[in-house]
Amino acid sequence: MGLYWMYVFVYLCMFICTSETNMLLDSSTKIRWYKQVSEIANIMTKCIMDHDTNRQNHGRTIDIQHPKYGRITKAERRAHGFNAEHKIHPIAETKKVIISEGDFLQGTRRDTYGHFTIVNNPDRTISVLEPRDHDGCQNQIKSTVMETSKQKSCIVAVNAGFFDPRPGNVCLGNIISDGKVVMKSEGVQNVHFGITNDGSLHFGYLSKTEIADNNYKQLIGGVFWLVRDGQNYLKESIDIECQTEEQAEIMEMYSKTILSARSAIGHDEEGRILLMQLDGFNEHKGMTLYEFADVLLDYGFVQAINLDGGGSTTLIINGTLVNHPTDKCENDPRFTCERKVSTILCVHSVHSTRSEANDQSECDLKTVSNISEHCQSRTIDSNNIKEEVQRDTDNH
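-> structure tokens emitted (396 positions)
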């Protein structure tokens, strides 16, 4: 996250110093803008790390949100496949996506590449994992998504929580992993994704009491609720998670102008978990947060929260890196490599340890050579996905 915000800072400096608008600004306005530019690199981090009394006031969230929600600050949905006698296959299905913005004839077209994943049985097949091993947060470890995904032989793995770039504290916010309380944020009002022991998916803002009472088995925090009840909720979420009007104004500007790689988690109308990963590179490629929220709506997200993005954006499928990271490799700067991050979201088989291998069907085995429509995760071209599914079904 640290390098990403440096890119944001440089981009805004260049914009302000070189744009035609700069010639129209008086000196006092320039000074004000420069102060805002120097602050933007810290704002999203402040939205995660500030623990002042105001941030811990769940009542403030209730007051800011639209009156139509009353006192309800989270959305709940029974997970797809909950109470089903047998797990529903495939566990996860991933397809490549190409999303175009702008007009080709006017020279403004911008194509963004990424991956869209649908997860069945999410209450049994999704876990929040600490970096590298089960004590990664306590030991202040950062790790690549690839390395962390080995804990559960993840079928699909994506970076999740934000992290503190400063020494001494890697993981941030509320974190619960397979029922283990890893970290508490003492009620700080960042948006969360959680799964309860009774099979409910939760998205939204949680009080300390709600976290204690809901018996979560998985819980992770993000920054900004992008989609709430099938509508773009970014503006209201910025007002909730930023502590001052000035911070909110700067984040609003950032959210409308800065292109970057993006990651999000949400669910559809059936209670299936949806993951979206889009590639990007500082201000040149990717999407703004507002564009991203609208794209999620197009792909059927009913709820969605923003996960760590930028250079942290990573997607692993069956042990293979499938997206395009942007950090230069330490051993060879000619190439790009995964960034070391904090927590990840892991999609795994219901029986995800080798000790239970005898109870697994062929569809759960990561080593299965002919992955059919009934098995694990498939990555195929988005234009051929319906044809492939139909052909695979016919063969059975």
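The chain is about 25% helix and 25% strand.
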